[in-house]
């Protein structure tokens, strides 16, 4: 298992950008940063994806969706799951972060801020509805492994926060 | 070498499988919504890690067995998990104490396993440790909340720690497979970790207004396949579908 640098064949980017994350459909698998490598040989494509969290049940669906999307464009795709280097929230693209916030999931803060926010020491997570930072952590674990539950103290909106994973 | 590596992977992974199963029992039964979600999230992380380990173990053996065979088709004596993780969900104090004792070990262990010369193990460790640092934060926070909480919660936490403490030492026991692989730079030499564990646990416990029990006799056996009376019941639940409908698939 050698360390892999991000490389996606240009011809595949627009196709893969249309494959959504099944749990967070506003993000594509590209914006999410789970596609690490995609190469073309003839009509054969090899895609390497990496899991966000070890137990993320979305990975199997993502692999199937990628094969299907590439199949529709005439490619015969194979998807491999790789573990190294391990996924980090740093790989979520800026476009992805904006889409998350718009969708109602506060995007991940940096590691130090994340820790302070989740332990309740500092109010740093922005409410996705009104933008206030006067928010509190309801539960450090949420509806999926990657999220925590927050509530805005000003507008009372409950919302998800995408935890920093580094 | 192949057999040693296989056994060593199971030693690591079976702890995650059995604790994951125990935590899964809490789905819909946690004391409140927050802890219910947390325990099942941790369970999901552990089961995800197990899949990576078992897939690798199957690959090592090269004899056609699959991750499902390893998870579901072994006999009790073939499981290598420690006795700690099979202890029952007596009450929330026990659940948190068991989790804290395991998380602290798991975190220290993975920190070292990241440097294993076996690149698959080091990759799984580097992935898992990010998740486990959240687990440790959760369980140690609850140790403090309950240990330094009311008289009742403190009493129950101390009772749980007193009951579970005799199980901690087995986490650091080194099997023959482990011994052979330490020499190869593949396995973690847990001897050195025990001191760090005890120092760190002492600090956490002090902060949680709890006393580290003095124990003379430690409980052992799981790592060599000799389990407690709880294990059969866990496996009956875990293996039911595969035993009832052999080779079934999703």
Describe the structure.
The complex is a heterodimer of chains A (166) and B (250). Chain A folds into two domains: 7-87, 2-Layer Sandwich (GMP Synthetase, Chain A, domain 3); 102-162, no CATH class. With 166 residues, chain A is of the alpha/beta class. Chain A is built from four helices and eight strands; from the N terminus they run E-H-E-E-H-E-H-E-H-E-E-E. In chain A, strands 1-2-3-4 form a four-stranded mixed sheet. In chain A, strands 5-8-7-6 form a four-stranded mixed sheet. The model of chain A has no long low-confidence stretch (mean pLDDT 92). Chain A has helices at 10-16, 58-72, 94-103, 111-118, and strands spanning 7-8, 35-41, 44-49, 76-81, 105-106, 135-139, 147-152, 158-162. Chain A is 24% helix and 23% strand. Chain B is an all-alpha fold. Chain B has a single domain, classed as Ferritin (Up-down Bundle). Chain B has helices at residues 2-24, 33-61, 67-72, 92-113, 119-147, 151-164, 176-183, 191-207, 231-244. The radius of gyration of chain B is 18 Å and the shape is globular. Chain B starts with a helix and ends in a 6-residue tail after the last helix. The model of chain B has no long low-confidence stretch (mean pLDDT 96).
